[in-house]
Amino acid sequence: DTEVTQTPKHLVMGMTNKKSLKCEQHMGHRAMYWYKQKAKKPPELMFVYSYEKLSINESVPSRFSPECPNSSLLNLHLHALQPEDSALYLCASSQARADSSYNEQFFGPGTRLTVL
Amino acid sequence: AQSVSQHNHHVILSEAASLELGCNYSYGGTVNLFWYVQYPGQHLQLLLKYFSGDPLVKGIKGFEAEFIKSKFSFNLRKPSVQWSDTAEYFCAVIGSGYSTLTFGKGTMLLVSP
To answer: Which of A101, A106, A107 sits opposite B52 (nearest CB)?
Structure first.
């Protein structure tokens, strides 16, 4: 299985709602990533988990809260978002070797989030 | 720091024309290089990658790229484009000692039938 799955595909939420995005992979990868992608822009890294521990937080606002409950799952909890947070949220996974030669990232299809 | 520069933001071609999209990176050490494609409304897909070995890399859908270390370049090519190649193309790099990808700003390719 070489797939990264993400649910839901689409999400519309109000600024006072609490919602969660989910990501799952069964490739045995121990590094997982959240990216945010605005239209016609490259993905921007938000968080990196390595061996279920948060290793990189790219100064993301606290209204985004990541969670890695086990080696196959990655969640992104959303609370009190702003309309400018509307974007495509991509999950990716990779092996977590120190030698970056093997750290090819596999991307999921994304969750298209609209904040009203 | 690692960085990527894509030369063209928009490219418009007719079907059957040849394609070359420029990508230059900035990093002094060993690099791994990638080209991703994103079709309208869809997610990122890996077109091809360079890790080591033969600098001419062949990917899916007839695309290829050449790693020229002396020029810090990894240009994407296709001899004859199709309308279905209309998409956004992203070059990305990860340097040794880094754990995260750096993407270029992307090139929007529009192929007219």
So the answer is: A101
Residue B82 contacts A, CB cutoff 8 Å: no
In this structure, is the dihedral angle defined by the CA atoms of residues B82, B84, B90 and B96, taken in order, positive or negative? negative
Q: pLDDT tens digits for A57-114?
A: 888 999 999 999 999 999 999 999 999 999 999 999 988 766 655 677 889 999 999 9
**Both structure tokens of B6:** 């894509």
∠ Cα A32 A35 A41 (to 5°): 150
Q: Within its chain, how far is the Cα of A97 from the centroid?
A: 20
